Amino acid sequence: MTESLASTNGFKSGSRLERVLRAGHFAVTAELGPPQNADPEVIRKKARLLAGVCDAANITDNQTAIVRMSSIGAGTLAVQEGIEPVIQMTCRDRNRLAMQSDLLGAYALGMRNILCLTGDHQSFGNHPTAKNVHDLDSVQLIQMVASLRDRRCFQCGDVIKGIEPRFFIGAAANPFGDPFEWRPLRMGKKAKAGADFIQTQLIYNVDRFAQFMERVRELGLHRQVYLLAGVGPLKSPGMTKYMRDEVPGLDVPDIFVERMTAAADGIDKEDKKARNAAFRKEGIKIAVELIQQMRQIEGVAGVHIMAIEWEEAVREIGEGAGLLPRPELEAQPSGVQG
Amino acid sequence: MIVAEQKPLDEIKGLLADAGKVLVVGCGTCVTVCFAGGDKEAGILASSLRMATRIDGSPKDVTHITVQRQCEWEYIDPLADSIQEADIVLSIGCGIGVQALAERFPDKIVVPGLNTTFLGLPQEQGVWEERCAACGSCILGLTGGICPIARCAKQLLNGPCGGSQDGVCEIGHETPCAWQLIYDRLKAQNRLHLILEIQPPKDWSTSRDGGPRRITREDLRLAAEAAE
Lengths: 338, 228
Known about the structure:
The structure holds two protein chains of two kinds.
Chain A: H1 16-22, E1 27-32, H2 40-50, E2 56-59, H3 71-80, E3 85-90, H4 96-108, E4 113-117, H5 138-151, E5 168-173, H6 183-193, E6 197-202, H7 206-218, E7 226-231, H8 237-245, H9 254-262, H10 272-295, E8 300-305, H11 312-320
Parallel strand pairs in A: 1-2, 1-8, 2-3, 3-4, 4-5, 5-6, 6-7, 7-8
Chain B: E1 2-6, H1 9-16, E2 21-27, H2 30-33, H3 39-55, E3 61-67, H4 73-76, H5 80-85, E4 88-91, H6 95-104, E5 109-112, E6 114-124, E7 127-132, H7 148-151, H8 178-188, H9 193-196, H10 222-227
Parallel strand pairs in B: 2-3, 2-4, 4-5
Antiparallel strand pairs in B: 1-6, 6-7
């Protein structure tokens, strides 16, 4: 096999996220959702809110099967704004040819992190009559991205002649999906396939997450992958109830519904502005507490803060949890942009 | 078996358009068993069409006939005379039956009266469920006899995805998570090691993605017989 033509100074990808984690810092990633239109300003505005408060920001890929600006297109804009993207890529919309060509393009445009996902079913989104692809599943996608980087081979086995795409490879884990006892083992499959880091589903039930992590440690997976725990600030009692009752794969204990409801005690029911501010303040407080609790769990290497359409919250949560300022790193290795 | 269901009557009427003489052709095999296109359904459909077109003011002459198998030449060849007399043939066989009639009688317009839905079984009286996607490369030996290609909404080979909750697929309460079923069965059989291995990307060329599929058995061909 020929030697890598991409210079990453001994790092797999040289991304900021990789270097932060390798240096042993508690990493912070955030989420940047692209708009349902072609306006670059939306991305720029969100990127400015996230600049300096996270190490990298996930750019979602047609999240919940709703058509949005492409992850790679939006990621390119984020790079221009000084935000390091984590490109999300689902298996729902593309086959192995399209995925690999997009990976080549994304790397050429400066992307260095990828999150490999199965993808929400199209029936949730705005094109429920679409054909889904699922040529590969998420585990096979991880394998393919690792092979492009480490074996310099396309999925078919052909050698890449020239610069290979070198991504820091992420995968998702849902500690609360069923079967519960299978989840750490499936995460192990993702580690074996070549995942470097894991971002989890939103966690509200820390006790149950701790059980998951215990099993993760028994399997030694915390030494194979960096695990970033998913955190999301609650916005209102209504949203909290909805997440508790309606969203598959989420475990939201009743105490958070009670706390969110109590947050507006004593505030005039008509004063919606004051009530919303109180709810949001409590939501951020809860997020900070969750981070502080999860940080104590061995094997948690960082947090993934998902503040959907509330990017301002990431700074407040980061400040509250003592995660700011983000660490300064040495100059990036040559050949790496963004 | 092949499971099908009848198209709405309005759609069928649209397909028949101006044709005056209609021959409904039923099939005595799979679609009889799933109560969609057997002799009984052919008779009811013919009678419904006669009634409906009379009410619409343009009555059609609708007759019906049923063959044992619409997917074999030897069963459909004897239909030649009846088909000759009709303006249009409404097949209520599966998609194979429709195409067999259209191929054998290329001068006739042949239209489908059913939507061919899947390969499956009657789960209980009146409920049919898909079991096989005919992908051309069977992995049931690895998955406890439960097919993730036919039964997982995302055709995952390394499932389940994060949307599996309480044994149910994220697409809805009626759909069991195929991977939960696989997990439960392999666990009960003490064979979970089978799904701990990473299943590599599937070769879809044996599936529909490779174009229309064909099997040639030289040992069974008449030419081979003659050569012996």
